[in-house]
Amino acid sequence: MTHHHHHGSPPLRGRWSSRLGFIMAAAGSAVGLGNIWKFPYITGMHGGGAFVLFYLFCIAVIGVPLMVAEMIIGRHTRKGPVGAFRRLKGGFWGAVGWLGVCAGFVILSYYSVVAGWTVSYLWLALQGTFSQQYTQQVPQLFTGLLSSDANQLFWQALFMLATVLIVIGGVKKGLERANRILMPTLFLILVGLAGFGLFSPGGSQALEFLFSPDWSKLDQSAMLEALGHAFFSLSLGMGAILTYGSYADEETNIPKVAITVSAMDTLVALLSGLAIFPIVFAYGMAPAAGPGLVFKTLPILFSQMPGGSIIAILFFLLLVFAALTSAISLLEVVVAYYCDEWKWDRRRATLVMGLVIFAIGVPSALSNHLLKDWQLIGERNFLDSVDFIATNYLLPLGGLLITLFAGWVLTPSVAKAELAKGAAVSWFYPLWCFLIRYVSPVLVALVLLNKVGLF
Ligand code: PHE
Description:
mainly alpha; about 75% helix
């Protein structure tokens, strides 16, 4: 990010160094553990096809319009969520920004624990653990990791430290540049893994599981999970994309960016499903194995494919990087709030909040061993419960409120003007208006209320 001041933008606020920089940053925020760790495991838990198709529907009909709305609000106000809603309307709407900042704290607290698992797998890969002679041991590695509280705390702390250093250092410019190389590489590796999976014994069963719907499996919980995950995966409903939009150039074509980012995000999730499920079926594992699914499946593939130990290193390196680019966008929402509204300096806000978030995450890091009997929601341990609350309630609620705000409170001429910038096409505005006013809020409200049992 650089600090040019043009078009009368508020001085000293960062800007992406290029339009491609904005797309890459938004895609960096969206593509992360949600796509590679979470999408396959929740798809497995909810029975496959019907869940996947409903998820795709949520992305297209609710996710894309909401992403456009967040970008419009961010670029128009040039503020983070709290400042943005306060400036545009204030009163009750200020609470929407607050909800977003809270979600940032909560999500990053456990996100960093799961990211820590990926760092520890990178470490294992570097030691050559995923080579042929160890195939037998591979499945036990995950259980081994989870049974050590100290290890999980260590990797969580290391990951948070890296996130804090990047957010302080304003190494964003370097990060933008690195993103440009690393994201396409991650994509290529996933294409390779998915290809390998599809032509291996479990391939056709995986395709069938992922894409042929059994609608009887799509109950209220599955619908809410799919909707919530659409928000989580696209980084929506809490102001992360809004904050990134506040650094976007006046010439950026918002609909184009939103559609590109959503498409990339969706493709990465589907590819990771195509890489993971063939192994699940070929080895007779349970699709509903839960949060350990990626960690238990892909290493088997690595230990058996030619060049697998190198590919394992590359894959986990890129996965750590994908998690980092998402984590910095979560921390950025919190930091932008303390900088914009409390006038803290960036360094102090980042250090203090990084530490607070680490502390909130400690019970999540301990949730698999020391605190494994502490179940908050159903049979879920602490980490899974917090994830459940954030994804199924905080984000859909935040998303619903932002949608209502953009459709009914924001002055239409503001949205129209934002959408007209940067060679936008004329048919987009009426379509967006219709979706954001009538379709998205009704659908989100229906899914939420249905789950809560209000009708
Ligand atoms: N979208 C990120 C992922 O899929 C997680 C995230 C959620 C990031 C909300 C920012 C805000 O991994």
